[in-house]
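Design a sequence for this backbone.
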């Protein structure tokens, strides 16, 4: 029997945490080939990746970075400006789009790919949070498929797939980040960025300690699994070994366990429905699987995220925009940790009432970034 040709991958966000780990998974297998890839502004690393991988096309999504890089070719690879990202994702030769970039810039490319019937493996929370109804509807209408890469959503997805039964309740776990060990009033960026378990990008590490990350994941689960908010629960699990659980009609519960390694859900999304052999085997002889009630009061942004998600419409887009600005200000030491939540709350309270569609989703996110910036100055 002849070998199947490798699947063609478009990798968005190749220089970020997810992108770098995705490259580890993809280049370690003969089943995949990166045909196109994108990065935002880390052109130094991007150049090294291009030389190693030799994709046919690449895109720099930051306009200023692209201008400095030049409209050129890097060996056999042709480099495109930001406005060409959607075309790369929707190219007929692409089998899977892996969305590993952060922020809302991937929203239109993801929508266009789903509208072409592509499979999109999404590690990027913001597009689903901001426009989950629209993206899921596009996938259904055009035969596209959304595969979750977030460890929690991948866990829930696999529990449902393996049980072949509808879920009654979903449980996602939270490690708590560095904030669980914070016994002081002043919390520095350096303290927050020292996550005890996961190795992630700076923004998502801060989001883990404010509770925003878990709130966004609840909104994401609501869309991905068509589940009412009242049936999505969060549990505290600092060891990050249990990533998600699903309760079924008969009262049974399936739990998904793995080492805290993002290469595992990345690998599953790319190989779905098969699993690729990896080396992260767990030792159950001395393992702490304690689950506790999620202390929502300790996580300053968790309830804000839930409130925005339940309101729906354009509020999640406002949430995403305000949070991005506030977190950036905290990392730059322009505001204290506690002020992140105040900025987001004020921005949400002033969110304009507009029709829910893609142009307005992007318009409101931009407005929220600018409004939050005014509150910081």
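Sequence:
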């Amino acid at each position: 029997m002849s070998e199947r040709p490798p699947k063609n991958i478009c990798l968005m966000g190749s220089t970020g945490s997810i992108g770098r780990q995705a490259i580890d998974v993809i280049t370690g297998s003969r089943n995949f080939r990166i045909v196109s890839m994108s990065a935002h502004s880390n052109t130094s690393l991007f150049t090294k990746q291009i030389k190693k991988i030799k994709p046919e096309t690449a895109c720099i999504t930051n306009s200023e970075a692209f201008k400095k890089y030049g409209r050129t070719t890097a060996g056999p690879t042709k480099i495109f400006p930001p406005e060409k990202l959607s075309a790369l994702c929707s190219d007929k030769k692409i089998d899977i789009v892996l969305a590993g970039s952060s922020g809302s810039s991937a929203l239109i490319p993801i929508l266009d790919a789903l509208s072409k019937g592509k499979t999109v493996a999404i590690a990027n929370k913001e597009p689903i949070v901001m426009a989950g109804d629209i993206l899921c509807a596009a996938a259904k209408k055009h035969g596209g498929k959304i595969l979750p890469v977030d460890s929690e959503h991948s866990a829930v997805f696999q529990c449902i797939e393996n049980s072949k039964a509808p879920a009654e309740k979903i449980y996602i776990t939270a490690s708590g980040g560095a904030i669980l060990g914070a016994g002081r009033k002043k919390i520095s960026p350096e303290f927050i960025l020292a996550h005890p378990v996961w190795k992630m990008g700076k923004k998502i590490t801060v989001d883990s300690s404010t509770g925003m990350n878990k709130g966004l994941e609840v909104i994401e689960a609501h869309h991905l699994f068509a589940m009412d908010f009242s049936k999505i629960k969060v549990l505290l699990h600092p060891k990050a070994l249990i990533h998600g659980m699903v309760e079924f009609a008969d009262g049974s519960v399936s739990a998904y366990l793995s080492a805290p390694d993002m290469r595992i859900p990345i690998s599953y999304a790319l190989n779905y429905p098969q699993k690729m052999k990896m080396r992260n085997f767990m030792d159950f002889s001395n393992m702490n699987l304690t689950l506790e009630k999620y202390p929502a009061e300790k996580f300053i942004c968790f309830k804000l995220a839930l409130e925005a998600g339940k309101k729906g419409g354009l509020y999640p887009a406002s949430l995403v925009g305000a949070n991005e600005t506030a977190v950036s200000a905290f990392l730059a030491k322009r505001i204290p940790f506690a002020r992140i939540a105040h900025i987001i709350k004020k921005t949400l309270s002033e969110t304009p009432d507009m029709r829910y569609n893609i142009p307005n989703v992007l318009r409101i996110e931009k407005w929220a970034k600018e409004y939050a910036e005014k509150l910081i100055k």
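The CA atoms of residues 96 and 365 lie 27 Å apart.
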